[in-house]
Amino acid sequence: MKPKSLFTRLLLSHAVIILVTMLVLGGMFNYLLQHYLANRLQQQFEKNAQTLANNPLIRESIALAADDILDNVAKQVSQSIEADVIIIDSSGTVLASSEKGVVGEALNREEVKNVLAGQTYSRWGGTLLGTPSLTVGNPIKLNNTVIGAVFLDTSIKGFQANLFSFRLYILYAALMALVLAVILAYFLAKSISRPILQMNKVAKALARGGKTEMVSYQGDDELGALVNVFNRSITEIQNTLVEQHKLEEQRREFVANVSHEFRAPVTSLQGFLELMQDGVIPDEEKSKYFTLMLKDIGRLNRLVSDLLDLARFQAGQAKIKPVALEPGLLASEVVAKLTPRATEKNIRLLTEFSQALSPVLADGDRLEQILVNLIDNALRFTPVDGWIKISIHQGEEETCFSVADSGIGIPPQDLPYVFERFYKVDKARTPDKGGTGLGLAIVRELVLAHGGTIDVESKSGQGTVFSFTLPNA
Ligand SMILES: Nc1ncnc2c1ncn2[C@@H]1O[C@H](COP(=O)(O)OP(=O)(O)O)[C@@H](O)[C@H]1O
Ligand SMILES: [Mg+2]
Known about the structure:
This protein is an alpha+beta fold. Helices cover about 55% and strands about 15% of the residues. It has 3 domains: about 5-160, 2-Layer Sandwich (Beta-Lactamase), CATH 3.30.450.20; about 215-315, Orthogonal Bundle (Helix Hairpins), CATH 1.10.287; about 320-470, Heat Shock Protein 90 (2-Layer Sandwich), CATH 3.30.565. The chain has helices spanning about 5-55, 55-65, 65-80, 100-105, 110-115, 155-205, 220-275, 285-315, 325-345, 365-380, 440-450, and strands spanning about 85-90, 95, 120-125, 135-140, 145-155, 325, 350, 360, 385-395, 400-405, 455-460, 465-470. Adenosine-5'-diphosphate binds next to α10 and α11.
């Protein structure tokens, strides 16, 4: 069998409950109504019979055997109460009847005997006059002796017709209530099943990895609470998925970048080696090729050690041993080391700090690595005859280092990315192909590991300023 939807089941169960309730209530109401009406009719006729039996005129007329008077009375009463009236004497002989002829014989002997013995009598559904009727009988007594009896017989056709139309009303009312209730049940079932169906849809969409909207139900009932929890979970899952996706992307990009960076030197090494193997290169040129090959190998070396450095930082394994050290001294040493390269390009290396600064909390080798990296960049991206200025400013809590140059600058749209791994502003125009694009990423990790911050400001064509802070000792 096909599984029924929640909606159908809710609607069906509601309809069944409503129907059963209606049937039970309708049945009960019908039963009570019928009994009430029947009892009323019966009591009314019993009272009529009693009143007639107690009527002095009738008593006297029986005693005097005045059949004419009795006949008249019977006819009049019959008209006013819409029933046949039969009066018999103590021997059972009919004295008067509003419906001449048939009546007397129709009365059951046994019943007549009972009434003449002093009992009252009521009977439903007899067919005294050919139609279903209500028959009541009452003894007529004079001085405690039964001298006769009065019987009333009324057709219950009218009563049945009344009952039938009452039943029709009940049925109409029940049908209307049923339709209303089913409509209400329909909307109730819809309101319950809709959010559940929606949750189903959202969950499926999520499972397929697609973007999904939230479930819109907003009730403050249990379903609303469930939808709330569901929506929150969906948001969390989606965020996690987005995060995962980003990480995945980054990893892929990283691998692609690494492969790309390795390819150039490896390809060129292979080329040179093949040329040498084929004996194409004359002996006197070999040393030139060795120099080129050493350069490639140096580049590979730098790449590997940069990558290792970065990996260690990202794994949190980098060993930083901060000690109190005088920053001016260390900066002067770095400047001294790089002065030959600056002189080569006729770049002035300026310093703006005293030699007696208060100590900072830093790992000496790492601080040197930071400064060398920044000044190396400045040297590479500053044309001949330019200048580079290294400044140190000390505050209460921290010391700010900056490396400014008069170089080519970094376009504003590239500024946010320069600290990212492998990011190079313009690969084609980078003057020295030696760069890996990892330097600034490492510098940032180093600064952050010291508890400092790093920043860059630049104007295309006018120069760049990298500044970072380190905590004071
Ligand atoms: N002082 C600077 N002036 C201009 N551009 C710079 C400077 N420093 C860095 N950049 C840009 O940022 C990029 C990333 O620098 P870095 O991470 O040190 O990599 P690499 O030096 O290996 O190219 C450089 O390729 C360059 O485009
Ligand atoms: Mg660099």
